[in-house]
Amino acid sequence: MHVDARMKGRLQRYFMNAPEFLWGLTRENQSVSYPWLRSKGRGLWGESFDFEDGPYDDVKAQLLHNPGIERLLRDFIIPEVKTQYGEEALGYLRNCWKSGTPPDEYILRRLNVHNWGPFFQARSIGDKLFMGPWDIFAGLWFEDFEQLDS
What we know:
150 residues
């Protein structure tokens, strides 16, 4: 995957402005997320990968420096999303995106999508589950990230 300077800047801005750290790949707090990220990153990029713990925005800025947005997407975010969701669930979500139809919670559960991750911000109110807006990450994934991975 190689992106031109314009696309790189755009992807960096999406990453920095995402409402969830790493687009919600981890739903844990910093004390769990940072060691997980550090371990995964060192496995991918070697011992030279590291960052100083701090506020999410500071860590995001460090990640744009090391490993950089291209490697972060190609080596970490895209494979992690594929692992968390699986091809069948991603296929269903892709069809929903292309047809302009919101995903159905029942179908998602049947597809074993329990970790709502980056596509949804699930909130329970009483006994009802509300899936928050999925359009932000879904748009990035189905319009940009999947093309970067091909």
